[in-house]
Amino acid sequence: xxxxxxxxxxxxxxxxxxxxxxxxxxxxxxxxxxxxxxxxxxxxxxxxxxxxxxxxxxxxxxxxxxxxxxxxxxxxxxxxxxxxxxxxxxxxxxxxxxxxxxxxxxxxxxxxxxxxxxxxxxxxxxxxxxxxxxxxxxxxxxxxxxxxxxxxxxxxxxxxxxxxxxxxxxxxxxxxxxxxxxxxxxxxxxxxxxxxxxxxxxxxxxxxxxxxxxxxxxxxxxxxxxxxxxxxxxxxxxxxxxxxxxxxxxxxxxxxxxxxxxxxxxxxxxxxxxxxxxxxxxxxxxxxxxxxxxxxxxxxxxxxxxxxxxxxxxxxxxxxxxxxxxxxxxxxxxxxxxxxxxxxxxxxxxxxxxxxxxxxxxxxxxxxxxxxxxxxxxxxxxxxxxxxxxxxxxxxxxxxxxxxxxxxxxxxxxxxxxxxxxxxxxxxxxxxxxxxxxxxxxxxxxxxxxxxxxxxxxxxxxxxxxxxxxxxxxxxxxxxxxxxxxxxxxxxxxxxxxxxxxxxxxxxxxxxxxxxxxxxxxxxxxxxxxxxxxxxxxxxxxxxxxxxxxxxxxxxxxxxxxxxxxxxxxxxxxxxxxxxxxxxxxxxxxxxxxxxxxxxxxxxxxxxxxxxxxxxxxxxxxxxxxxxxxxxxxxxxxxxxxxxxxxxxxxxxxxxxxxxxxxxxxxxxxxxxxxxxxxxxxxxxxxxxxxxxxxxxxxxxxxxxxxxxxxxxxxxxxxxxxxxxxxxxxxxxxxxxxxxxxxxxxxxxxxxxxxxxxxxxxxxxxxxxxxxxxxxxxxxxxxxxxxxxxxxxxxxxxxxxxxxxxxxxxxxxxxxxxxxxxxxxxxxxxxxxxxxxxxxxxxxxxxxxxxxxxxxxxxxxxxxxxxxxxxxxxxxxxxxxxxxxxxxxxxxxxxxxxxxxxxxxxxxxxxxxxxxxxxxxxxxxxxxxxxxxxxxx
Length: 937
Prior knowledge:
Elements lengths: L4 H15 L12 E6 L14 H16 L3 E3 L9 H10 L3 H18 L15 H15 L1 E4 L4 E4 H11 L16 H6 L2 H9 L4 E11 L4 E3 L4 E2 L2 E2 L7 E10 L5 H7 L7 H11 L1 E10 L6 E6 L10 E4 L5 H5 L5 H11 L4 H6 L7 E8 L6 E6 L11 E4 L5 H10 L36 H14 L3 E7 L4 E2 L12 E4 L2 E4 L32 E3 L4 E3 L9 E3 L8 H4 L2 H4 L12 H7 L4 E4 L7 H14 L12 E3 L3 E11 L4 E3 L9 E6 L13 H7 L7 E3 L8 E6 L10 H7 L2 H10 L7 E2 L5 H13 L2 E2 L2 E2 L8 H19 L3 H17 L5 H11 L4 H10 L23 E8 L2 E9 L4 H10 L1 H7 L6 E5 L3 E5 L1
Parallel strand pairs: 1-2, 1-23, 12-14, 23-24, 25-30, 26-28, 33-36
Antiparallel strand pairs: 3-4, 5-6, 5-9, 7-8, 9-17, 10-11, 10-16, 12-15, 13-14, 18-19, 20-21, 20-22, 25-26, 25-27, 25-29, 31-32, 33-34, 35-36
């Protein structure tokens, strides 16, 4: 029978959509399973075959859990705020919402074609006001919360106000920007503005001056992971370090919980390691070094206080506010020049550049707190303001970077850890020795010396033991248009949140999407974007008077805001009263399976954990961690093609003819190759781009052969394969099976369109098991033991594979089972029906069709997964090797249920045994059931 994949795909996709087959049940008596894919951003390019890999895997597992009787939540939505749509708006004037809608329509068409079992009725989009209303609500909750270190959780700001009113800052243990010392009277007598300033010091969403990655070309602040090699990842614009007033989220309050929580979730270890490193917990001491002339001190945090006697100079981060205070007039020009150079580097660049040594002397000195020696104070880009105090005590004998710095600037190097190296040449960084040249620490091991020196630091009142974290508070401002408006207005220069009744604060219309002439963000172009406090409504900006009408915040939220809680909205997407009903969040709980890329390790995955923990603290959800199990899918790599142009010409030389010519290697679109070969269609190439219209070719055997290379699949490399084309030619099920068949989900693997033919051949063979010629042929005869064995062998393997997320090996098992059943000419209903159910999570379209032609009116999706019966896997007979004096002479097939006496009797009667014995009697017969028979003659 002809397998018409196009007709079958269309038929069942239409059926699923019309019947809402995958709509999540509200029946909470069933066990739940929540399968989720990382939020896609709908780009204009649409999907290529690399994108669906993780979606296919989660879809297979979601379908499997439905067959097992679970109430499955498998939703989809779009992280639809983003820079690309805004950049397109700037270039063309087209509103980002229009571009985004077009892109989403394209994405949805492609995903429906692949047959994903999403509950489309729960779709959310971060750019829809009905969604970002609740993103704004969560921001307001964060603004009106503080972190109480005593109870170790976030609490309403009202409890902080109560404490300040009764006790001031006495016995107040909070996460804060700076330590304040206030009495209850100080608080009570403070003005409204001053009180708001005090509260900003504690709020979880707060505004403060921060060093940021400023990108003038994009007109916005970028996160570290959006900057590469000093340029923006989007557009390649230069990025500078700049101090700006920014909204921030106090994620540092959750550093310890984020760290400890990693022990309770089933995530890939490399991803956990990334988060652990990013959070960067370290234990050490905070020590003050008094300056000689500036009437101030420099506080440093060190993880190696045991080496303090080896400290010979201090290094400040170039952006440390103390630099202005400590720089002498004679050094100011050099220092300012160095600070300007450093501003062109991101923090990530500074952290990774371990080879280059640079810095500038401030002209000032401090006194060593134990030896009273003078120590020069330098600045250098290897010290970061965001880690510790933005200052380090340099111990060049025992720190590689300090050592290189000391060598460059000819600074003193003092050995304080016993070792045999020449520390003037190289540093010795080990903790496995004892202290020397360290007065009262001499002879002590690292652990003992660390305890003793911290005690002495605290006894002398020059510092204290301290736990520090590398993680910084998260910048929460973007100077862009296409993002969630921040629901804040400014009164007397202080931020106040809008009442929740005014949400959503919608994006206003603007004439242009660029910053204003005054340098304000694009929202500054809006004519109606001010807050009337009396009437509680948004009004025209020309009505701002500072009395009843106030300016609104002009920054928008960052890209990660909407994706930090979307998994909760899916639980209750239509609720207009709360972001999600508590009963719904309690029922669905954690995401049971989350699949996405490892590139989100220190971005989305940290922020989502942080917001979820906050919402738990405030009683809105019951679970600490949002994602119970996470899998990072690998990439599907493209097979790029390259042509070689002789430099300075428009002549292209075939790959195997290149000798010593100076050549340029140029990506060429893989669609310009002839069929599945490496040969370039030269006429198609000439028509591809105007610059190649007059191209000349140096051919080999009349052909131009391209170079091929496996790379990341990317539009810029012209190596993308469109899944629509694969669905047209081979069908959605073939695409799904092939992507799983390529290899383990977590590994990266190259795409090869030629490989689809083998999988397509399997599908045709599988389809025709149910036909005799052009007629459906399924009998009600009882299957043979051999047929049952094939089926239950497959069931056992697929259950094991799916429970272990080994999707690729199941596809191999399908092929083996279908081949064996074809050889057996199996047409038995009791075999073919469960076979279709077992394969259906992977290939739903063909299995729905086969289920239908067998006489069923309902979807195969509702059918229970076949139960494994191990009895069918037990062999009825065993082929015993029969040996004489240890040498195997023949095999005999006997029942596995026979005892040793029965086995011996049957073996001794066998003609081959009689022939081997030659009339002699055996001295001994050794029998191990279901293993061996050995006759000793």
